[in-house]
Amino acid sequence: MTSLRRRAGFLLLETMIGVAVFALGMLALTRCVQQCIGTEAARAWDERARVALANRAAEIEAGAVNCDKESTEKLSGPFEGMTLRQKCIPLPMKDETGKELTGISQVQLEAAWVEWSGTQTKALTFYVYPR
Predict the structure, then answer these.
(1) Is the C or the N end of the chain the one with fewer CB within 10 Å?
(2) What are the residues facing 55 on neighbouring strands?
């Protein structure tokens, strides 16, 4: 009878250890899934910021948006939650003969948004010459 009790006790202990290992594995898997979801959300925000910056750059290059002063704007629609900052810096440049070139500007665009990990930004800098 003591042999039967020892076997039953060992079986109970073995089952408890198996359940504990399974629970730890499930906790680790849950953490991995949580990290994957957070990474996918960050990637989606990053992609939206890239599109917003590309759209504004195209608008400025086409002349649809005036770029003569610094501005900050809260975006709407698919870019809800983002803030777009725009700054134009006139560049004093000369050509090879020493003649002053006017109208060339450096444009700095920055999209900012808030995620669970804090404030994130994406920036774009390019040059414009008015037509």
Answers:
(1) N
(2) none
CA distance 59 to 88: 14
What's the domain range around 116?
2-128
Q: Return the closest-CA partner of residue 128 out of 40, 64, 35.
A: 64
pLDDT category of residue 117 using cuts at 50, 70 and 90: confident
At residue 100, φ and ψ (nearest 5 deg) are: -70, 130
What residue has token string 């000369």? Answer: 94
For 30-63, the pLDDT digits (tens) are 999 999 998 898 899 999 999 999 999 999 988 8
Q: How many domains does the chain have?
A: 1
- How many residues would you count in the chain? 131
What CA–CA distance (Å, rounded) separates 80 from 57?
18
